[in-house]
Amino acid sequence: MTATVAVAGAGRMGQGIAAALGFGKVEVTVVDLRDRGAATETYLAAARAEIRLSLERKVRLGLLAEADLPAVLDRIRLVGRDAAAGAMAAAGLVFEAVPEVLEVKRTALSWIEATAGPDTPIASTTSSFLVSRLAEFVARPQRLLNAHWLNPADLMPLVEVSPGAATAPAVVEATCELLSAVGKTPVVCAASPGYIVPRLQALVMNEAVRMVEEGVAGAAEIDRAVRIGFGSRFAVLGLLEFIDWGGCDTLFHASNYLRDELGERFAPAALVEQKMAAGRRGATDGDFYDIADTARDDYRAQRIADFAQVLDATGQLHRYDDLPRHNGRAAAGVLSARPTGEPQNR
After folding, report:
1. CA 10, CA 98: separation in Å to the nearest integer?
2. How far is 168 from 310, CA to CA, in rounded Å?
3. Average confidence (pLDDT) over 258-267
4. How crowded is residue 219: how many other Cβ atoms within 10 Å of its Cβ?
């Protein structure tokens, strides 16, 4: 595992990464690349206070013993650009975490190349620019990749690792090894706009806004439905496994119906149409996941247990003894209390 790490950029993302690395028992130096003049130390003190605050939250959550907090903080240094030469030269990996402005990225990457070791991997945390674009700013693109942390970076486990065509496999391996060692979950994806999570969430968020615009439901009701019905299921299965769970034909027919009613944005993906044409339905064919027939019952039982665990953790799992008891007369009274003409089932 990389012994020391440098983070170029002392803003919110840089601070979050530093907290995650220090918590993960890695020595890290955060470099403020902006020329703040006499205000540098004031800014660095404020950044230190923010990092400390995020780690104190972990203490309150029971994730970090209060006695261990000083040791974690001691692993994290914050310096101005003029005092960063030694840390940059010693770093086994550098995260670039400057604002999402292309010219700022260009300047930062040029500075990192000039100050870090010649073979040191450089991981840009950008959520806006692909590694193929950033590779134009470095002399040795084989050591460059994207490592997209999700906010809040110190808490969220996922980091999307996106290598470019020139990125050396050893750089991908070293980056993923470091992330895993500090408790993160690296997922490698191609250099494609939006990576995985931002691309999916942009579609879902916009559709939620459209439902508010159309009067389908209010914001609170939509978000409640997402938390209870949408998020809990996909926290267990993920999207593609859920297709296999319910059947590719379910997605195909639902997509076509929604396309007819709401527009082409709901058209089924070409791969879904190909699977249907080939007679593969997912629920029994295992289109995206290969689950042997002999293990299918055990697999479903385990997933149901996983569902129950998630629902229980969010206070949504109801136990039999907790539900109110009704005799037949009371239940009939509840039903008969509906206004005349109101549907009994909704």
Report:
1. 8
2. 39
3. 96
4. 11
Q: Which SS3 state, helix, strand or coil, does residue 195 take?
A: coil
pLDDT at residue 333, as a whole number: 59
186: preceding bond cis by omega (within 30 degrees): no
- Number of other residues whose CB lies within 10 A of the CB of residue 137: 20
The tens digit of pLDDT for each residue in 181-205 reads 999 999 999 999 999 999 999 999 9
Per-residue burial over 95-104, b if 16 or more Cβ lie within 10 Å, else e, is bbbbeeeeee
Beta strand 76-80 with 144-149 is: unpaired
pTM value is 0.87
Quick: pLDDT tens for 68-121.
Answer: 999 999 999 999 999 999 999 999 999 999 999 999 999 999 999 999 999 999
Q: Which strand (E) or helix (H) includes residue 252?
A: helix 248-262
Length of the chain: 346
Are the CB atoms for 85 and 49 separated by under 8 Å? no
Edge-first strand order for the sheet with 185-188 is 76-80, 27-32, 4-8, 93-96, 122-124, 144-149, 158-163, 185-188
Q: Is 112 exposed, middle or buried (0-12, 13-18, 19+ CB in 10 A)?
A: buried
SS3 291: coil
Which residue, among 183, 179, 111, has the nearest Cα to 146 in the 3D structure? 179
Structure tokens at 50: 């923010």
